[in-house]
Every structure is written in C-alpha cells, then in structure tokens.
Write a structure and sequence with these properties.
Layout (H helix, E strand, L loop, with lengths): L5 H4 L6 H13 L5 E2 L11 H11 L14 H15 L9 E4 L1 H13 L5 E6 L4 H8 L3 E6 L5 H17 L6 E5 L11 H14 L2 E5 L25 E6 L12 E5 L1 H14 L5 H12 L3 H23 L12 E5 L8 H13 L1 E2 L1 E2 L10 E5 L4 H16 L1 H14 L1
Parallel strand pairs: 1-10, 3-4, 3-5, 5-6, 6-7
Antiparallel strand pairs: 2-8, 7-8, 9-12, 11-12
Helix pairs in contact: 2-12, 3-10, 4-10, 5-6, 5-9, 11-13
C-alpha cells in the first residue's frame, strides 16, 4: 500500500531531529546538557492564573464541551488587552477568536483561505508554521527577507514584496509578517507596518501578522501592532499568544484578531475541527489578561538579565552575538572558524563537546544558514555554565576542526 501521502511529501525532513536525537541520547547516558534550543519558557505560570484554573475546574459545568471560538469572557478580555495596549477597539464577537496557541490559528487559517497553487509570501528564515502551514494546505510559498529594522533592510523587504507581486502567477494571496521575529529577534516601527499596509491594500493582498512576542521586549519602545495602522483591519489579521507573556506554553492559548472575513473563515474551519480549549483554561486565561500585570514585567526582567549574561559572556569567549531588543532568542552568527561546516554540524559539535544545545539556523529556512538560535530558557547559573563550556570549546577550536576534517575525509 502506498504510504507516500501528498501532504507529507511536501514536508522536508525536520532539520531539528538530528540535534534532538543527540540531546536525548546524551541525557539517557547521564550527561548534563544545557538546553538553549527550544523556546520553551521555564518560569512558573503566575499563581493567580493557576488559582483561577483550580477554582474553575471545581465546577462540573466547566467539564463539558467548550466553544471553539472561545468563551465570551475570554474574547472580551482579549479585546480589552488590545484597547489598553494599542488603543484599538475590537468587536469581541466578530473581530476576535481564541485559538489553541497561535500556531494552530495560523495553520487553520491557512486551511481556510488557501486553494491549491495559491502563492503565499512568507519570511525566510522564519518560524516553520509561517511557510509550512500553507504548504500543507496546498499553497506555494515565495520567500521574503526576514529583516526590516534598518532603512537598508526595509528597502530590501519592500523591493522583494514588489518583485513578488510582479513575478508571481497567480498574484500572491497573502503575506506573513513576524515582528518581533522568531528566530531573528528583529523589531520594526509602526511606519514600516504603514508602508506594508498601503502596499497590500493597493494590491489586494491579505496580511497575516504574528505578534507572539509583543510583550517580550527590553527597551522603552513596546513593539507595535499592525492593527494600529489606519485601514489595516480591511486586510489584516494578527495572531498572539499567552505562552511567553504569562509563561503558559503548555496551556495552548492564543488568539487571532482583526479582519472580520478572515476571523469568520477561521471560525468556520475551527467549528469542524475542535471544541476549543478546556473551559477552565479559558477562564484562567481571561484572568491572566484582566488581572495584575506585574508578572509580565517580572518576565521581561528575567529574560533581560539572562540576555545580558549570555551576550556579555559569549563576547568574553570570543563569540560576538548581537543583543536582541525583543523575544526570548539571540540570533547568533556561527563563529567564523566553524562557519564552513554549516549551522547543523556546528550545532551537533557544540552539543557533543560543550554540552550545550542550540537550534541550527538552517532549520528555519535556507536563509538561516550561517546562524544558530539561542533561547533564553535556562536560569542565570545554567546560562553562565553554558558560557563557560562554550568558552572552553572555542578555545579548542583547532582540535575540534581537525577531528571534524578527519571525519569528513574518512566519510
């Protein structure tokens, strides 16, 4: 029987698999691996959110099927967040929908709006669902630069957007943007969003904005929402998540907000696929959005401290990595002496010799080659240990490169 299924055929081998297998094997052998690979928040969910979950789950009525669009109180809470944070008034009935994390929302919207052969514009490097959600849905992806924070890179982004419209047949259906960016940690200002909205309104292209890291920033300029732009809601929907903001990754609670037609399309697909998150999780998520927000600033301080320890420590080790202004990631150029081996082999070598796991940049797309992503998910003591291990590793670069060259020659 043929098991070469159509949608599976369109998915390349998962690049992270080799590193993940090596990590699992090392831990099974009793090795202490410091994991800076997966962006998996290690902080506890704030107690008042947990308390609301416990309170709600005591009511047997909450054990029944929920609502795939999200309970009304949760959608109102999300609309309230947008009003406080961005001065945007959303209709919680028609412009907000709860999702099982932003990843599910993006994937199901792709299913809702994509016909086979439709062209989608997505950044490269990027979080994999930005491209593969549409590939799974039968679309074709054309890549855009993932950088737009300087006048030069912004001009390059807009030029690539223009080329995509001129050279794509059929005309692009939608463009995915992600700022603050995973994995590059790029941030942009509102005037960039204004330029993108003007362009896409003129060319009648949907905009899907991933704003999952809206609250993980380290300066006095909070990242903007594309929905702040006049006319953006005519063509845009934005995805966000509680995973990082409130240290709730396993709770799987996210949102989509914006254009009514896109929200309606997503709601219709979801109505066939799920009954929504467990009601107590939705109730607790509303408590997160409506409750005290001191925990959010504590989250920022925690990641800021780890960022500074990591970046300063790596610099002292001879590995100069740009300090991210936002997200829980550092986008690190592979050290020059190791660059020829590629980001995957470098990541494997770093794991085997320094006992530090990172994500190879090529796993986020071919334009991620030459980089690796380091997540700020280990406490300060573990981060310092990782830096010490890496410093010793870089100091012995000649030895490791010779061993690597010998293995390559033998192979």
């Amino acid at each position: 029987m043929d098991d070469n299924f159509y949608r599976i055929k369109r998915l390349p081998p998962y690049v992270f698999t080799e590193v993940n297998q090596m990590k699992a094997q090392a831990r099974a052998a009793g090795e202490d691996i410091i994991d800076l690979g997966m962006g998996n928040p290690d902080g506890a969910t704030p107690q008042h959110i947990v308390d609301k979950l416990v309170e709600s789950v005591q009511d047997p009525k909450t054990h029944r099927y929920s609502n795939s669009r999200g309970i009304p109180g949760l959608r109102k809470a999300m609309a309230g967040y947008y009003e406080r944070r961005f001065n945007i008034n959303l209709d919680p009935e028609t412009e907000v929908i709860a999702t099982l994390g932003s990843k599910e929302g993006l994937a199901n919207l792709a299913q809702a709006i994509t016909s086979p052969g439709d062209v989608i514009l997505a950044p490269n490097p990027s979080y994999p669902i930005h491209a593969f959600g549409f590939i799974i849905a039968g679309g074709s992806v054309r890549h855009l630069p993932a950088y737009a924070s300087t006048p030069e890179t912004r001009a390059s982004f807009m030029a690539a957007l223009e080329r995509a419209v001129v050279r794509s047949i059929p005309k692009p259906l939608a463009v995915v943007i992600n700022f603050p960016s995973n994995p590059t940690a790029e941030v942009v200002t509102l005037d960039f969003f204004e330029e993108v909205v003007d362009f896409c309104r003129y060319h009648e292209i949907w905009i899907l904005s991933d704003l999952a890291y809206s609250e993980v920033y380290f300066d006095n300029q909070p990242p903007p929402s594309i929905l702040q732009v006049k006319g953006a809601r005519d063509i845009s929907v934005e995805f966000s998540s509680l995973s990082k903001t409130y240290s709730m990754p396993g709770w799987r609670m996210g949102f989509a907000a914006g254009n009514k037609k896109l929200i309606s399309a997503l709601a219709r697909v979801k109505s066939y696929l799920d009954y929504g998150a467990f009601t107590p999780i939705q109730v607790a998520s509303a408590a997160a959005l409506n409750g005290p927000q001191g925990c959010v600033e504590e989250m920022r301080e925690r990641y800021r401290h780890r960022r500074d320890v990591l970046i300063d420590g790596l610099a002292s080790a001879g590995w100069h990595v740009p300090s991210p202004q936002a997200t829980m990631f550092a986008w690190a150029p592979v050290p020059a002496e190791f660059r020829a081996m590629g980001s995957l082999e470098f990541s494997k070598l770093l794991l085997s010799e320094a006992k530090v796991a990172v994500s190879p940049g090529v796993g986020f797309g071919e334009h991620g080659e030459g980089f690796c992503r380091l997540a700020l998910v280990e406490n300060v003591q573990r981060t310092r240990q990782a830096v010490r291990n890496i410093k010793t590793f870089i100091g012995n670069a000649d030895k490791y490169l010779e061993v690597s060259d010998n293995k390559a020659a033998a192979g």
